[in-house]
Amino acid sequence: MSVGTTEADHFYLPRVDQKALLDLLKKIPSLAEDLAVTTYRQDRIGKGGMKIASGTDEQPLPFNLGASNAVDLLFNELAGWARHVCDSRGISYMPTGFTHDFDFVGPLRESENRLPYGYQESVLGLARWLRRNIISLAMTEGADTAYVDISKVMNRCWATVDIPAEDPVPVHEKDEVLERVRARMLHRAGIVQVAELLARQYPEYRGLTANRVDALRKGGHIVAKWCGVLSRAEVFLMGEVLDKHLDVPVRARKVAA
Q1: β partners of residue 185
Q2: What is the DSSP string of 33-44?
Q3: Residue 90: how many CB atoms within 10 A of its CB?
Q4: What gap in Å lies between CA 236 and CA 224, rounded to an integer?
Q5: What's CA 215's distance to the chain center, in Å?
Q6: Angle made by CA atoms 61, 53, 73, in degrees to the nearest 5
Q7: Under DSSP, is residue 165 helix (H, G, I), strand (E, B) or coil?
Q8: Residue 21 and residue 80: Cα distance in Å, rounded?
Q9: What does the pLDDT read at residue 36?
Q10: What confidence tier does 3 reach under pLDDT thresholds 50, 70, 90?
Q11: Sign of CA dihedral 132, 11, 14, 84
């Protein structure tokens, strides 16, 4: 830093916009949760909206593809800014809460954490990283549009969430619907929430409660892929949970004599 200049002189994103962006990023957890709910319920996407073919008929998907695409759009926007910061400043991306890559073989100090093998970053993780690295972002060329760009994408996401719901329509082609549901990585509360919505169309998924998820985990039928950085909540592959819920019998409770 040259004589007579301050750190603020090197900000491409002014402090007032930094604060506004931080406040915006803090809203992402609730937005992501609302998008998850909207994705897996029967939302009104218009009579001419996304449909699947079933024989000679076409029926609306019980899966809001618009909300699902909004999640991907938000992820790509946040990932793009994180990548821009890393590339511009010559640093490697490390998810918040971790200090070493999964292949690090040395001993870890008490305050250090190794990245789990197969770790996949999330919208929440990217938002946390950007909040933690807000100064690095602000000092990166091109950051002057960060608030506006992220805000535009979030507004599109909120518009998707605000679509009013309508009564579910039965759909027979399950594979088309479940393919994207099964690929999701969710914690226990998210699994239960999605299962409740799926059960409205597919009765076989009834009973996938929080206790059922715990029983499957304790029995070794499902294994967490990783834990949340802040909440430490275990995250599972939804498809694996659905399969084991159908395959593993529910134990009958013992009746007291």
Answers
A1: 237
A2: HHHHHHHTS-B-
A3: 6
A4: 5
A5: 24
A6: 45
A7: strand
A8: 15
A9: 74
A10: very low
A11: negative
